[in-house]
């Protein structure tokens, strides 16, 4: 008879629900917390002034001219967001086979860095030296005879890193995945007197299908010839990812990043446990757009799912998250809803 079942005997008087019985107990024993200090806001830049240009594939995200971006960065700082990451949509006339405009001291990235440092000096600026915003073919490196050449690319991005540091970048975050880039950038920065500038390595950047909306945002989706599998990591390979990250640690990375985010939480945990460096995840454009699309259709509660995914990164060992939700999440946290 089911009436004879003794639940106390089964559980040994251990009841997991005791600590879940009320809001105050749940808050008291909560293991993982999301705060505004965990957020980095990626922003997209365009040439011109007075421009706020919606990105169709990323509802709620805009390309902004530097003057409008300054307003956004000031708002981010007011919310307590510690840092931003900048990504330019460079005019097509400035793109070529080698991405040479990446070396211009007055290019869009460096112009924005100087403007942000003048207007909002308290916020951290993270810049990327990958060449894809500057190449006519959409690849992250220099294309020679159908091949992305590693060493020539590394020398160029090391030069670009120094120029970005000269402009005021606080952290260089190379996303190109060329071999040896972290050590080369560290050498170049130190030789130029930028020992204080950190490196956040895109330690495990996978050849993912989640990047599509981002490529629309920076204007490379129609340019890409071939794919990026000769330099990004195969999504099947966790051991290779750990080896790749280990090389970045040896070469002098100060922080590690996993990109994309949610499909690679196992990698986040493995990097944190293995190397102990500050570890970050990039919640990429495809992850963002899927949540936004499902919420727009009424299939999920967008705010709750967004916060749950951000919390998942923290639970997986991440010290912070690059997310297009950063402003929205920070505003919710400020209202006590995080």
Automatic annotation (TrEMBL):
Assigned GO CC terms: cytosol
Signal peptide: none
Organism in which the protein naturally occurs: Hoeflea marina
Source domain of life: Bacteria
Recorded family membership: Belongs to the ALAD family.
Keyword Phosphoprotein listed: no
InterPro entries, alphabetized: ALAD (IPR001731), ALAD_AS (IPR030656), Aldolase_TIM (IPR013785)
Any one biological process term the GO annotation gives: protoporphyrinogen IX biosynthetic process
Catalysed reactions, semicolon-separated: 2 5-aminolevulinate = porphobilinogen + 2 H2O + H(+)
Annotated GO MF terms: porphobilinogen synthase activity; zinc ion binding
Active site (UniProt): 205 (schiff-base intermediate with substrate), 259 (schiff-base intermediate with substrate)
Pathway: Porphyrin-containing compound metabolism; protoporphyrin-IX biosynthesis; coproporphyrinogen-III from 5-aminolevulinate: step 1/4
Quaternary structure annotation from Swiss-Prot or TrEMBL: Homooctamer.
Protein's UniProt name: Delta-aminolevulinic acid dehydratase
Class in the EC hierarchy, top level: lyase
UniProt EC number: 4.2.1.24
Keywords: Heme biosynthesis, Lyase, Porphyrin biosynthesis
Gene3D superfamilies: Aldolase class I
UniProt cross-references to Pfam families, sorted A to Z: ALAD (PF00490)
CDD domains the record matches: ALAD_PBGS_aspartate_rich
């Amino acid at each position: 008879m089911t009436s004879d079942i003794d639940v106390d005997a089964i559980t040994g008087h251990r009841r997991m629900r005791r600590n879940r019985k009320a809001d105050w107990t749940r808050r008291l024993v909560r293991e993982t917390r999301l705060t505004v200090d965990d957020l980095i806001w990626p922003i997209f830049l365009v040439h011109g002034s007075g421009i706020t240009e919606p990105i169709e594939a990323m509802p709620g995200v805009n390309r902004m001219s530097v003057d409008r971006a300054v307003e956004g960065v000031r708002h981010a700082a007011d919310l307590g967001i510690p840092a931003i990451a900048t990504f330019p949509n460079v005019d097509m006339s400035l793109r070529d086979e080698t991405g040479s405009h990446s070396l211009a001291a007055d290019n869009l990235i460096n112009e924005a860095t100087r403007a942000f440092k003048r207007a909002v000096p308290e916020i951290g600026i993270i810049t990327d030296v990958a060449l894809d915003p500057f190449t006519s073919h959409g690849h992250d490196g220099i294309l020679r005879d159908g091949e992305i050449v590693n060493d020539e690319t590394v020398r160029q991005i090391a030069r670009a890193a120094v120029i970005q540091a000269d402009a005021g970048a606080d952290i260089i975050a190379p996303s190109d995945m060329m071999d040896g880039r972290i050590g080369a950038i560290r050498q170049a920065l130190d030789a130029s007197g930028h020992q204080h500038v950190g490196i956040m390595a895109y330690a495990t950047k996978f050849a993912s299908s989640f990047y599509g909306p981002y490529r629309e945002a920076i204007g490379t989706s129609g340019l890409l010839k071939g794919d990026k599998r000769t330099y990004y990591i195969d999504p099947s390979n966790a051991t290779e990812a750990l080896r790749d990250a280990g090389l970045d640690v040896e070469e002098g990375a100060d922080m590690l990043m996993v990109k994309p985010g949610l499909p690679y939480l196992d990698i986040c945990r493995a990097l944190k446990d293995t190397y102990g460096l500050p570890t970050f995840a990039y919640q990429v454009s495809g992850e963002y757009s899927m949540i936004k699309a499902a919420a727009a259709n009424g299939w999920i509660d967008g705010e709750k799912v967004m916060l749950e995914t951000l919390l998942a990164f923290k639970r997986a060992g991440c010290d912070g998250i690059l997310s297009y939700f950063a402003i929205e999440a920070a505003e919710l946290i400020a209202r006590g809803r995080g």
